[in-house]
Each structure stands twice: as structure tokens, then as C-alpha cells.
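Question (not urgent): is this output format expected?
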Amino acid sequence: MNSFSDPRRSDKEIRYKPTVSSNQAQSGDDSIPDYINILGIIFSMCGLMMRLKWCAWLALYCSFISFANSRVSDGTKHILSNFMLSISAVIMSYLQNPQPMTPPWATAIQ
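Got this back:
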């Protein structure tokens, strides 16, 4: 066996270029959790400022959706602050008016 002969063919070498699949492209620009997080903040503020219980409950629902769809790499501070804001909106709306919640479409019928 000759140590000077190299069995590799340098003229046949092709540099590897990774291809982007459709799943990787979609997962990189998935911004639905961000939009739901913003909606949760808006509903929380509406629930706190306008004393709307259904807005406070929608904010809590949006924060659950945002948590369920969030990535591991995202910071937990935003999710935790959104939860705290929505929970405080629900608690404050019931502290100000302890009556059961009436949906907005039920008030239009009466």
C-alpha cells in the first residue's frame, strides 16, 4: 500500500449547501403567539379600564393560547406578565362589580 496515493478525488468534491424546507420556513416566521399576546394585553387593559368582565376573560383566554403556542427560546417574562395582567383584570372587574357576568348580546335583547 502506497502512503502517497490518496483515494479521495478532489475533483468530485461538492460543498454541502443546506436547503430550507417549507416546515422550517413556516416555523421561523410564526408570529401568531405574538399577535395573541398583544390581543391579551389589549383585552386586559379594556377589562381593567372599562370594567368589562368579558374582556378580562378573553384576556385570560388569550394568555393561555399565547403560552401554549410560545417557543422554548422565547422569554418567559412576557408570558408571565401577560398572565398576571389578565388575572388582575379578572379579579379587579369582579371586585368592582361582584354580580355575575352578562354577555354583551344579552343586554341588547332586554
